[in-house]
């Protein structure tokens, strides 16, 4: 079941994807919303960045690779380690990709340039206390070299760029 915050995050992710420059291998976008009781993340990434190919898996090896990547994304509480001060627990994960036949994805805009959209919702009794998120995407997906991040909190809107060498997202100025 999709929560309003998760729906908002996925909508922001989709809007950002349409407003973003062309599909770029090695890069992804992450939108983060911090609100009372919840932190929501929306990820948009080319499949090539996560899998090394941008289409439906064709071989058993590619299917295993896709299954492993999806399992990694579903374990979002290990990919995103939120400041313990917020008291967060993973609430839901939603994955959408036409090429992987996930979710209510529409047809891919350009055959051969498939993406995945992922929404992650964390229930956090003290969400505003979160000062950072350790982002484990770079270790999980070594093809990822840049993560463009937008953060919206009750106090500020921030833009950050994370890299494998700097994967800690500061949530405050």
What descriptive keywords fit this protein?
5 helices; 6-stranded mixed sheet; alpha+beta; 34% strand; 25% helix
Outline the low-pLDDT stretches. Answer: 1-21
Considering DSSP H and I runs of 4 or more, what fraction of the residues is helical? 25-40%
Please, how many helices? 5
Computed Rg: 15 Å
Shape, principal axes of CA atoms: globular
Would you report the number of β strands? Answer: 9
Beta-strand content: 25-35%
- In N-to-C order, the SSE pattern is HEEHHHEEEEHEEE
Global mean pLDDT: 86
The end-to-end distance, rounded to whole angstroms, is: 33 Å
What strand line-up does the widest sheet have?
A: 4-5-2-1-7-8
Structural class category? alpha+beta
Biggest β-sheet description: 6 strands, mixed
